[in-house]
Amino acid sequence: MTPDGRNPILVAIDTPDPGHARDLVRRVGDSVGGIKLGLEFFNANGPAGVRDVASGHDNLFLDLKYHDIPNTVAGAVRAAVQLRPTILNVHAAGGAAMMEAARHAAEDEAARLGVRRPLVIAVTVLTSLDDADIGSVGQKGPATEQVVRLARLARDCGLDGVVCSPFEIVPIREACGPGLTLVVPGIRPAGAAKDDQKRVMTPAEALAAGADWLVIGRPITGAPDPAAAARRISAELAES
Ligand code: C5P
Q1: pTM of this structure
Q2: Does domain 9-239 match CATH 3.40.250.10?
Q3: Strand ranges (E), the chain
Q4: Sign of the C-alpha dihedral, residues 12, 17, 21, 23?
Q5: Mean pLDDT split into 10-residue runs, the chain, 240 residues
Q6: Whose CA is nearest to atom 15 of ligand 1?
Q7: Which of ligand 1's atoms lies nearest the C-alpha of 14?
Q8: Based on the number of CB atoms within 10 Å of its own CB, is 198 exposed (0-12), middle (13-18) or buried (19 or more)?
Q9: Deepest in the core among 5, 95, 192, 214, taking most CB within 10 A?
Q10: Alpha-carbon span 138 to 167, nearest angstrom
């Protein structure tokens, strides 16, 4: 658990099938801190599907990674706030004005609806990109420097946090201090298959490094008994 006694696991429900998503959430919902729905689920099922699967759960991370002109992103964020996410995200590479517009839109729409404002966090550099990829799109590497540069920019734009790999937690904390919420995928319990994740940490290691939320998908959703897998990871964290 986190120092404040919260279950930090956000289970990634990566399926286009609403029945499968509902079933997974029903089975693991009580053993995790929240659920993450991303582009795969959203593009198949839309806002109604999100409402259906997420209703009754405390924390929804709506992982739709907005990246467009500020006015369009602000509109998307206003619409997303109606789904009551705890966290939503944008690409930091969309720039300062876009991030500020996202943050203000979240604030305004939450106030209008009388609901809690979602945390607005930024994706810095996709972990699927290496130093050569970063150069090929005209960004200045190495990757960790670009991650830290964008994390600072996100913080300066008033964003609440960033999505980062476990190995970026320490450099970001050193550069940006303790205030940013760090949402961390690339997590594998000891002994679990890595799948397509290359550099991973265990849940306890990532928490010890300073993660606030751990995004965990296949180690839970691909397990023969997802509920047991979620309980096992939660129990491991409770002991750490
Ligand atoms: O199944 P697994 O635990 O690898 O799922 C991780 C989740 O986190 C997936 O939904 C994936 O899209 C997401 N993610 C990631 N790496 C990033 C950003 C998001 O794995 N850098």
Answers
A1: 0.95
A2: no
A3: 9-12, 34-38, 60-66, 87-91, 119-123, 161-163, 181-184, 213-216
A4: negative
A5: 85 98 96 97 98 94 98 98 98 98 98 98 91 92 94 98 96 97 95 82 96 97 96 89
A6: 185
A7: 10
A8: exposed
A9: 214
A10: 23
